[in-house]
Specification:
Blueprint: H1 4-14, H2 20-35, E1 47-56, E2 62-68, E3 74-75, E4 77-80, H3 87-99, E5 105-106, E6 113-119, E7 128-138, E8 151-158, H4 162-165, H5 169-179
Helix pairs in contact: 1-2
Length: 183
């Protein structure tokens, strides 16, 4: 499995000004990818790479969130790499599948944010890590949304209101980056 492109993205992200927590998660992700040739596959049961989309409007005042059916949390769109080393492409594909949006645009090829989080054991799949590479995408809030089976609901949310729906640091960090004009 070809990991060179993923490692290049991760190493470039590591050179950006990151808070201490994100810097540590980035270093852990680089180590994980270097150590596991199968890092892009769900069959790597200790963890695997995922690609997420922080979808914003062009003014960057609103973001599209999903009320995730399994986790019962408001989150950004995204999903498993399933062997695909183009994580920006994974984020774009997942955003399209989970929202029905057809005119999404990748705002930057670089990683916007990185998070590493535990996924609880479910249906015989042991607890494991998701190494989540997040990309900034732009979309038109006027385009109709289609709720997929993975969501309870989709909603365009003012960036300033995101942490009222989900106060987790990983969400708050993306809000701070958006408000600071990063990406």
């Amino acid at each position: 499995m070809h990991r060179t492109a993923v490692l290049k993205l991760l190493r470039a992200h590591a050179t950006r000004p990151l808070d201490l927590h994100e810097a540590a998660m980035t270093a852990a992700t680089i180590h994980f990818v270097e150590a596991h040739a199968d890092c892009l596959l769900r069959s790597q049961l200790s963890g695997h790479l995922t690609g997420s989309a922080w979808v914003v409007d062009t003014a960057r005042t609103r973001t599209l969130l999903t009320h995730h059916r399994k986790l019962d949390l408001w989150l950004q769109l995204g999903g498993h790499a399933d062997g695909e080393p183009d994580l920006a492409g994974v984020a774009l594909r997942e955003a399209q599948e989970e929202s029905g949006l057809t005119r999404l645009r990748l705002a930057a090829a670089a990683i916007f944010d990185l998070d590493r989080h535990r996924i609880p054991e479910r249906k015989g799949v042991p607890e494991h890590w998701h190494y989540d590479l997040r990309f900034l995408l732009e979309a038109d809030p006027a385009e109709p949304l289609v709720v997929s089976g993975e969501s309870k609901e989709l909603a365009w949310v003012n960036v300033s209101a995101v942490t009222a729906l989900n106060p987790e640091e990983s969400m708050a960090r993306m809000v701070r980056k958006t408000r600071a004009g990063q990406g």
